[in-house]
C-alpha cells in the first residue's frame, strides 16, 4: 500500500510492506547502526541496484545522536566521494533516520535520502514529516533541519525483532494519534491484536495517513502540527528529571497523556469514562501511566524550559473528547498544580 505525503515539490510516498528492488542512478550509502545492520543490512544491500554501494555503521544509542557522529558520517561520505547525484538510505529507528536526514540535508548542500524505518516509533512517527537533527548539551533535537525524504519504506515484518518495550513505546505514539484525531481508530485499538500482521499494518497505515494529513497542512509546525505534542509537555519534564534514563520516550509520553487527560477532565473536556478508556488502552500495551512527582512546583517550572513553550506561555494540548483536540494556553498555574498533585 502507498500513502502520498503532499508537500508541493517536496512530495513523496510512504510504501507499507512494498519493499522490493531499490534502483538508483548514482552511488548509494546506507547508514545503519550495529544492531539493525546485523539484522537487515545484508537483505537491504541485496535489494539495491546502484553504481556503488557503501555502508556506514554508527554506534547504537541516543547518546550518539550528536554532532560528533555527524562529523564521522560526513567524513566517510567524502572518503567514498558521494556527489550530488548520490543517495543516502537510512536503515534503523528514529535515531538513525534523524541523523541520516540531517546529514543528507547538509552534505554538499543537500542530497537525496530515503528511509527504511525499523522501529514502530519510526514507522508511525519519525519517518514522516522531514524533521531531522541531533541533540547537544542544551537539549534534545536542538540542531537540525526540515528536510523531506524522497521515499519511505515501512516493513511491518522488521518489527518482529524489536524488543517488547520499544514496540510498546511506538504504540504510545500511535494511541496519541488516535486520541487526538480519530475516534474510530481508537475503537479499533481497543479491540485489535498487534500480534496479528493485518492489525499491525492497519495501525501503521492509519498513523501515516494522519501524520500525512497534518504535515501537508503544516510542514513547519506553525499550528496544527503542534497537536502531535499531546502528552509531550509532561513527558519532556519527566524525561529530563530522569536524565533520559529509566523510561523510554514513548513510555514517558504514555504517562504524559494520562496527566494531560486528568487536566482535560478538570476542565470539562473529557469524561471520567474516557480518561479511564485511554488509561486502560495504555495498560493493555504494558505502558506506564503513573510517575511519582517529587515537587509539583519544580515540575511546573520545568515546563517553561521546553523549547515548545514560546515566551513562557505554556501550551497544553488536550483531548476534547476522544478523537478531537484543543490547544489551551490560558490554564492557570493552580489548575495545573492540582493535577500534578494527583501524581505525588
Ligand atoms: N523526526 C521526527 O519527527 C521524530 C519523531 C519522533 C521521534 N524522533 C526521534 O527518534 C528517536 C527515537 O527513535 P526510536 O524509538 O526508533 O529509537 P532508536 O532509533 O534508538 O531505536 C530503538 C532501539 O531499537 C533498535 N532497533 C531498531 N530497529 C530494530 C529492529 N527492527 N529489531 C531490533 N532492534 C531494533 C535500535 O538499534 C535501538 O537500540 C529519538 O531520537 C527522537 O528524537 C524523531
Ligand atoms: Zn514523541
TrEMBL record:
Compartment(s) where it occurs, according to its Swiss-Prot or TrEMBL record: Cytoplasm
Any matching Pfam family: DHQS_C
GO-annotated molecular function: 3-dehydroquinate synthase activity
Domain 3-dehydroquinate synthase C-terminal: 170-309
Occurrences of domain 3-dehydroquinate synthase N-terminal (ranges): 56-168
Recorded metabolic or biological pathway in which this protein acts: Metabolic intermediate biosynthesis; chorismate biosynthesis; chorismate from D-erythrose 4-phosphate and phosphoenolpyruvate: step 2/7
Chain positions recorded as NAD(+) binding sites: 60-65, 94-98, 118-119, 131, 140, 158-161
Principal place of residence: cytoplasm
Family statement: Belongs to the sugar phosphate cyclases superfamily. Dehydroquinate synthase family.
Protein name, UniProt field: 3-dehydroquinate synthase
Biological source species: Campylobacter vicugnae
